[in-house]
């Protein structure tokens, strides 16, 4: 009946513009929630009359009822934004506020109201710098016989009123010493005043770590400084190119075990790779940097320096956001377009604006390209809905203490539909829906219930899959696999103690099944069996391909698709049987192989005589290679020195004359493709177009 009453009221209002007919949806009424964040702002006139102005506040409220607590009549239907006034006799009262939502749900609040005609006494004022917000001051005042207070923050901002005993906050424009005045007020004409000269401070260092970095294959990243990846060895993060004499300095800043670079009074600072070391970033796509600063340094100029002989450099500038981490992504093309070669980067340089005036903290300096291949675990996973899929015991894989049975699987249906999502970009999500299994330590009763923060899927998280070590690391408070309480330090007894990172041991049984184990404290081993939800992602080019054994399948000419200079004929196909049985193998996991057998076609530049012969390194199939198929761009990129499609000499820079000059990456254009055939082209130097026609084996 309550719902019908509110729906009827809505229809009456809607008649002003629309008619409320039987087709109108009222689903939004059912989805409304109970009011939240209730409070009562009370202000008493200082004239010994006991007149109190009461303003109810809250979220999701349609109207309020108020019981003054002194035996007078209940006030009903107070609209949001309105206030009431009531005269109290001197005394202490318990006022009760009832807030109503659209669907009839209610929330109540009880507040003590003290009406006294004595001046406030025993005034105690606490003024503190906020530990997490720069230049914010938090003020709390308590006093006997007081109901409210007025605060003058001493910086010219408007005076603020608040309830006695409740926190009032203010953010200053600048740090410094300010005269703060607090006036405590009750029902008496007389007030009590407190004044203090207080030093407002700015937070000058990060309180949280830089954002967690996504999982990346070693071949896709060149890391200069980041705990997420393998850094280039021997790097000097403060070579001091004269900055020290300008007052600049450097330190390794440790934030709870997370180390980051701190450049103090940043003028220009450098990073130098070890002597004789440089990195070729021409195959990378972006330079990533995370930077934290207070409000002094507004811009950071980052230069790449190529050399070391005849060193050249190019700068790129990005703006910084004060008091927070700024994640900078600079396309390598921005450096190349300035004429900089990036094949021997041996130094980086940072310049601050304004010059030598502020400090920056820097983390996660690395070059990267988009993933060569999706991680083998990429996709959506669930705990297998079968007996034994959730277990714990004193040894690895044991279910001695508990192992889910068939009845338990049925009872925990809300758990078995939870999703663990490993995205291709290295991000991770817990997707739990409206309910999951909630245990007593989370405030539940071993039953289905609404997810409890932070284990509710709301946090940003990333993952790292180390297939060699057999581990998955989840980074992000509240991210988990299996059950949320099990972590590397033990089992949680309070959601607030959730760790920021958890490492699991994993075994991929096959592409669709993984066994996850974690030792949650000494001798407590949890195990989960996860299965992929849906088929594993399949690349449209996954499989084994060979050059089609027919005339015209191998050709070169001055234009795309041309065979003007050479086009294989039937006799050539027969003569090159050792070439036409070569296989180009693309796996669903993103790896690539040249499978050549005992012989292939060897040309003079390889030491052969245009005849069948043993494969010549590095074009002998020994490369550890990967591939990226970009369906939108219509390209296949082969990564790995010596890996190739068609013929090994054709590459994007020209045609090889020496096997030692094989590039680390080659991009081919896909001109046609279907389930069993595809045609590739590559411009091997200006105006030299090779064409290969392939058939799936």
Automatic annotation (TrEMBL):
Domain of life (superkingdom): Bacteria
UniProtKB keywords: Signal
SUPFAM superfamilies: Cell wall binding repeat, PKD domain
Signal peptide range in chain numbering: 1-19
Keyword Magnesium: no
InterPro entries in the cross-refs: Ig-like_fold, PKD/Chitinase_dom, PKD_dom, PKD_dom_sf
Classification via Pfam families: PKD_4
Domain (PKD): residue spans on this chain: 152-207
Protein name according to UniProt: PKD domain-containing protein
Protein source organism: Kordia aestuariivivens
High-level lineage: Bacteria, Pseudomonadati, Bacteroidota, Flavobacteriia, Flavobacteriales
């Amino acid at each position: 009946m309550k719902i019908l009453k509110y729906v009827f009221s809505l229809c009456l209002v809607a008649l002003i513009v629309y008619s409320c007919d039987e087709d109108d949806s009222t689903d939004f009424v059912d989805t409304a929630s109970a009011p939240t964040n209730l409070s009562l702002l009370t202000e008493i006139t200082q004239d010994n009359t006991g007149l109190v102005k009461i303003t109810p506040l809250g979220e999701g409220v349609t109207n309020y009822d108020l019981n003054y607590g002194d035996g007078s009549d209940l006030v009903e239907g107070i609209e949001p934004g309105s206030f009431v006034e009531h005269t109290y006799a001197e005394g202490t009262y318990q006022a009760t506020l009832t807030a109503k939502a659209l669907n009839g749900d209610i929330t109540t609040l009880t507040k003590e109201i003290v009406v006294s005609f004595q001046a406030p006494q025993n005034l105690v004022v606490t003024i503190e710098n906020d530990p997490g917000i720069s230049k914010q001051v938090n003020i709390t005042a308590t006093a006997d016989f007081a109901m409210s207070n007025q605060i003058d923050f001493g910086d010219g901002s408007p005076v603020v009123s608040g309830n006695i005993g409740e926190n009032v906050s203010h953010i200053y424009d600048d740090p410094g010493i300010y005269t703060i005045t607090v006036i405590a007020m009750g029902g008496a004409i007389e007030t009590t005043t407190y004044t203090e000269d207080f030093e407002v401070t700015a937070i000058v260092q990060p309180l949280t770590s830089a954002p967690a970095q996504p999982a990346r294959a070693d071949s896709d990243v060149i890391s200069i400084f980041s705990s997420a990846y393998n850094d280039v060895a021997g790097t000097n993060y403060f070579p001091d190119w004269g900055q020290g004499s300008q007052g600049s300095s450097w330190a390794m800043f440790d934030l709870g075990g997370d180390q980051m670079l701190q450049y103090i009074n940043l003028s220009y600072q450098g990073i130098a790779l070890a002597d004789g070391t440089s990195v070729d970033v021409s195959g990378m796509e972006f330079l990533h940097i995370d930077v934290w600063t207070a409000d002094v340094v507004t811009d950071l100029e980052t230069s790449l320096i190529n050399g070391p002989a005849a060193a050249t450099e190019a700068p790129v500038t990005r703006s910084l956001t004060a008091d927070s981490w700024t994640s900078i992504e600079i396309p390598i093309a921005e450096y190349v377009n300035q004429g900089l070669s990036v094949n021997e980067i041996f130094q980086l340089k940072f310049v601050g604006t304004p010059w030598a005036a502020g400090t920056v903290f820097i983390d996660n300096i690395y070059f990267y390209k988009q993933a060569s291949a999706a991680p083998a675990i990429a996709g959506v996973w669930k705990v297998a809905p079968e007996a034994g899929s959730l277990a714990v015991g004193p040894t690895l894989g044991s279910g001695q203490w508990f192992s889910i049975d068939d009845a338990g699987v049925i009872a925990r249906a809300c758990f078995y539909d939870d999703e663990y999502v490993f995205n291709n970009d290295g991000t991770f999500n817990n997707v739990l829906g409206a309910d999951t299994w909630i245990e007593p330590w989370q405030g539940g009763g071993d039953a289905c219930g609404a997810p409890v923060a932070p284990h509710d899927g709301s946090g940003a998280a990333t993952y790292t899959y180390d297939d060699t070590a057999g581990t998955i690391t989840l980074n992000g408070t509240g991210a988990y696999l299996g059950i949320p309480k099990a972590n590397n330090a033990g089992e949680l007894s309070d959601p607030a103690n959730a760790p920021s990172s958890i490492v699991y041991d994993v075994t991929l049984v096959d592409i669709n099944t993984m066994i996850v184990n974690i030792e949650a404290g000494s001798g407590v081993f949890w195990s989960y069996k996860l299965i992929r939800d849906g088929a594993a992602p399949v690349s449209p080019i996954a499989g084994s391909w060979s050059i089609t054994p027919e005339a015209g399948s191998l050709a070169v000419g001055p234009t795309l698709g041309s065979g003007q200079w050479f086009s294989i004929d039937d006799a050539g196909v027969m003569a090159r049987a050792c070439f036409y049985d070569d296989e180009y193998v693309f796996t669903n996991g993103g790896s690539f192989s040249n499978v050549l057998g005992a012989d292939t076609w060897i040309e003079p530049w390889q030491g052969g005589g245009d005849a069948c012969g043993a494969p010549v390194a590095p074009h002998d199939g020994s490369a550890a290679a990967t591939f990226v198929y970009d369906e939108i761009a219509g390209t296949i990129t082969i990564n790995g020195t010596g890996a190739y499609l068609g013929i090994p000499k054709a590459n994007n820079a020209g045609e090889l004359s020496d096997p030692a000059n094989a590039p680390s990456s080659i991009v081919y254009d896909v001109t046609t493709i279907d389930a069993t055939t595809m045609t590739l082209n590559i411009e091997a130097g200006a105006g030299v177009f090779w064409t290969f026609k392939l058939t799936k084996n």
